[in-house]
Amino acid sequence: MSGNRNLIGYCGLYCGACGIRQGKVKEAAGNLRKVIGAYGFDKIMPELAKWEPSMQHYAEFDKVMDGLVKLFGECPGCAAGGGDPTCVIRQCCQPKGYVACVECKEMETCEKLRPSEQTKDRLRRIEAVGVDKWAEEMQRKVSAGYCYLDEKT
User: Fold this and answer.
1) What's the mean pLDDT in 40-54?
2) Which residues contact 52 (CB under 8 A, 6 or more apart)?
3) Structural contact between residues 9 and 132, judged by C-beta atoms closer than 8 angstroms
């Protein structure tokens, strides 16, 4: 099993471990629509609005779900143009041709990385084991069901 170095974000996140890349937003919206449809809630919203006023906004809610899927339904990964287009780390690494900040001699003193010790720790791990080995480690975790969302819940 090999990791994909193209799934390494410039900041060292492994895009394969991202809930957005894994399709969790798209899946959640689809599951919610399935439940709503199975119970016919979408057809009886005007009646439900009599008991719960917020239900009068179902059409807007449905559009928001479409927007979530449109914005976060699929991501090609940071190196392929996904993620935050205004990311200062990406803007710094791309012109230099870096896979990640770990290739930069200024990584330890970089002001762009200063606010996030977690990012620096991740990059130090990549530096210690190498890009390819780290990508393999992350891919093994992802194959076992890992997602960055697991760290935040």
Assistant:
1) 92
2) none
3) no
